[in-house]
């Protein structure tokens, strides 16, 4: 079973508006609030099957060299991520990168494995799971295709 990461542009835009609103009003975020940075985007996975999932592997493809960090969030239902708190970000994160000239995407295998297994567990109580993708080294969302295989 392969479940794709779907870019949630509406939630990303909503979180960016929160950031702009705070700047315009010259107010500080709530204590521990996670504000979306320009290189961060919200993605989701819709679980069409919730039970008997066993994590097999990640399928992350990058069109060019760069790095992406995938962080899960602990919201249980459709979240209002505009007030996402740092304590709602899950550990470990999945870090995937592609070196210049390389064909294959690399990752920290142990963290990626643990993260994948945790997602399989969380799927039992969720129909949807939200993630923050952080792009670095010039990488952008259009240059990524990703999914989780159970």
Element layout with pairings:
Layout: E1 2-4, E2 6-7, H1 9-25, E3 40-46, E4 57-62, E5 66-72, E6 94-98, E7 106-107, H2 109-123, E8 128-136, E9 144-149
Antiparallel strand pairs: 1-9, 2-3, 3-8, 4-9, 5-6, 5-8, 6-7
Short description:
This is OMP protein. The protein has 150 residues and is an alpha+beta fold. The chain has helices at 9-25, 109-123; strands at 2-4, 6-7, 40-46, 57-62, 66-72, 94-98, 106-107, 128-136, 144-149.
Report on this structure.
The termini are close together. The chain has a six-stranded antiparallel sheet with strand order 2-3-8-5-6-7. Strands 1-9-4 form a three-stranded antiparallel sheet, with helices on one face. Strand 6 and strand 7 form a beta hairpin. It has helices spanning 9-25, 109-123; strands at residues 2-4, 6-7, 40-46, 57-62, 66-72, 94-98, 106-107, 128-136, 144-149. With 150 residues, the chain is α+β, with helices and mostly antiparallel strands. Helix content is 21%, strand content 31%. It has one domain (2-22, 34-149): Jelly Rolls.
Task: Tell me, rounded to a whole number, the average pLDDT.
Answer: 93
CATH fold node name: Jelly Rolls
Report strand %: 25-35%
Based on CA inertia axes, which overall geometry fits? globular
Give the count of structural domains.
1
Question: What is the succession of H and E elements?
Answer: EEHEEEEEHEE
Q: How helical, in percent, are the residues?
A: 10-25%
Q: What summary fits the major beta sheet? A: 6 strands, antiparallel
Number of strands: 9
Low-confidence blocks of residues: none
CATH superfamily: Olfactory marker
Secondary structure category:
alpha+beta
Number of helices: 2
């Amino acid at each position: 079973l392969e479940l794709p990461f779907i870019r949630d542009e509406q939630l990303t835009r909503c979180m960016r508006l929160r950031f702009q609103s705070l700047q315009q009003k010259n107010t500080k975020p709530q204590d521990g609030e996670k504000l979306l940075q320009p290189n961060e985007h919200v993605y989701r996975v819709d679980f069409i099957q919730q039970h008997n999932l066993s994590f097999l592997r990640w399928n992350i493809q990058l069109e060019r060299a760069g790095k992406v960090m995938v962080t899960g969030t602990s919201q249980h239902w459709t979240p209002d991520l505009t007030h996402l708190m740092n304590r709602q970000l899950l550990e470990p994160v999945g870090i995937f990168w592609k070196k210049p000239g390389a064909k294959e995407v690399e990752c920290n295998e142990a963290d990626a494995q643990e993260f994948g297994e945790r997602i399989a567990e969380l799927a039992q109580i969720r129909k949807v799971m939200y993630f923050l993708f952080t792009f670095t080294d010039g990488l952008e969302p259009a240059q990524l295709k990703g999914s989780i295989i159970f």
